[in-house]
Amino acid sequence: MVTSTAPVLVVGAGPTGLVAALTLARNNVPVRIIEREPQHRRGQRGAGIHPRSFEVFHFLHVPEIHERATFFPQLQEHNKGSLEALNTFAMVPYTEPTPAIPYYNAKCMGQPTLEAIMREHLAKLGCTVELGTRLVSFAQDEKCVRVKVAKPRGDAREEVEEDIEVAYLIGADGARGMTRKQLGLTFLGTTREDQFLVLGDIRLEAKGLDRDHWHFFGPLSQDMITFRPTDELGKDGWQFVMTSRTADLKGLVHDENALVRRIKDFVGLGDDVKVNEVMWVSEFRPNMRMVNKFGIERIFVAGDAAHVHSPAGGQGMNSSIQDAFNIAWKIALVYKGFASLSLLDTYTSERLPVIAEMLGFTTELHDRTFDQPNAEHTPQSTADENGDSKPAKSNFERAMRRGGKLNMLGVNYRTSPIVVDEFVPTPTSGVAVVHSAYGDTQEGVLRAGDRAPDAPGLVPVISPNRASSNVSSGSQSNGTAGSIRMFDIFASTHHTVIIFAPASTTPDVRSVLATLDQTVPKELARRVVVLPGSAFEPNSCVWTSSEADQAMDAEVLIDQAGHAYRGYVVEEQEARVVVVRPDGVVGAIVHGVTGLEQYFEGVKGSVLAMDDH
Predict the structure, then answer these.
(1) Strand order in the sheet with 555-559
(2) In sequence order, what are the beta bridge partners of 585?
(3) pLDDT score for 231
(4) CA of 581: how far to CAs of 101, 206, 273, 357, 578, in Å?
(5) For residue 58, is pLDDT > 80?
(6) Is 330 helix (H, G, I), strand (E, B) or coil?
(7) CB neighbours (10 Å) of residue 273?
């Protein structure tokens, strides 16, 4: 295979495009990212970031997003014209992180802040967003994509066109973008013509309105306005959303005075409400649509360019981020010549079932949220997304509770054509197997295609090309000092092959490492041998590596706390190989060499597949 030198073009510089560009740049793939708007986007927009997205940012080495994001405030219901709290509850109850799931809680961060952080990391890798540059047209053949873009000429309003040749094109240019349209992909679905929402960012003061809660005035099924406090906009900053079944909200985005009057009217507190500034405002009708496939040949769509849905559940930006991560690591492998173009076909086969299922349940969630009747403040039992039954004081609380599969930790690619699992139980004859691409997280269950769990407390004893480490009971008794976690081994730049074995020098370990040396370049697959905690008895000995251990071209870690063996469902004396993909998904769970070869052959594809494209 011949590697390319032309860049990859990303169209659109929202979260989707930035994740795609950063993933490519981390993989040393030249990338250009263009944005038709002359300035970086304003507006908090979808501010909820779910646990699975925090894992993506971890693998991309962008820790600031989780560090700076804030927890969702509790929701507080009010009648119009009153600050009296009818009900206060947590929309997203806090869940204590576990060794396998370090990011277990959704948080808030406005998209301008998130995008600025991403751009900073991208700039460090030599890539900056080309503002005011729009996609005009494209055409592709078996070797490249020929693209025409237009950009402003100096300070003048006239444009100059540029013809560029790129290896691949990722359209992250939104639902109205031209990538999907010119590619000829269908975008079937429905529009809720009877529902209209206005949202925006404002600076507002209201006597008695605290900044500790997310305030909701009026029932969602009639006239409703919400205020979520955010210091990203200032000490008096709020994100608002308003909808109505009785008032006409059209045109408010173009009439600030009318908007301010409507805001004050919906709150019903008269002159106690003072709007200091309208910073950004937008309007939309809920659409539920998706493409029939996520790309053709060398051109792909991601995020809103591929699917739009209700904001209920906050899945939009988060699913878009995972779209971008999925296609970008695959393009990187193909670009480097390790895999054929057939690998890129799995972008559709993996993401299409996920998005189709997400579209279904977010539409149900939308109906439950916006069509709920007037709040009745009598306790009723309800089940959240985890199935936990808790009393709800109102229809509103029952409609607004979030959690469970909305965290996206159960999103999986178990039916992907490239995952390999030699430990899947044999289906019972005559019993249909029901698969959910948006499943729930299950303790003690791990299949190829699932998210790979974290595992802290791994004690390094051998690193390639370094002296071995002697692990003593005095320094490592808790498995913390000097230890590392599985998530810090994973990255967007390589596969991780985890070899679970009772000893590091067994024939199984040697044969797997030898196969890897012949199959995968070292820079594309990190080799890790994980030994059980019983390999080191803290009260009786010091673990010291042998000469054979030191000659291994792999890291050797002791799972002193046992989190890796539990999380990956491996018995201590069992030999098992787990391959984790660059996107943090388990690509293979196999016994040894045969399954390992099958997985990497599937990823690499064939010369025939390459020629077919």
Answers:
(1) 420-421, 586-590, 576-580, 495-500, 525-532, 555-559, 458-462
(2) 451
(3) 96
(4) 17, 50, 52, 23, 10
(5) yes
(6) helix
(7) 18
Q: Is the pLDDT of residue 349 over 60?
A: yes
The dihedral built from the CA positions of residue 261, 266, 270 and 271, taken in this order, carries a sign that is negative
Q: In this structure, are residues 497 and 526 in contact, taking their beta carbons and an 8 Å threshold?
A: yes
Torsion of CA 411, 415, 419, 424, to 10 degrees: 100
Confirm if 563 and 463 have CB atoms less than 8 A apart.
no
Beta-bridged to residue 229, according to DSSP, are: 238
d(CA 69, CA 49): 8
Whether 19 contacts 332, CB under 8 Å: no
φ, ψ of residue 394 to 5 degrees: the values are -155, 165
Residues 137/147, Cβ–Cβ less than 8 Å: yes
Q: What pLDDT was estimated at residue 429?
A: 66
Size (the chain), residues = 613
* pLDDT reading at 555 higher than 90: yes
Q: Is 236 exposed, middle or buried (0-12, 13-18, 19+ CB in 10 A)?
A: middle
| Alpha-carbon span 470 to 467, nearest angstrom | 10
Token reading at 340: 């054929």
DSSP one-letter code for 454: P
What is the token pair recorded at 385?
Answer: 């997304």
3-state secondary structure 298-310: CEEECHHHCEECC
Phi, then psi, of 64 in degrees rounded to 5: -60, -30
Burial of 583 (0-12, 13-18, 19+ CB in 10 A): buried
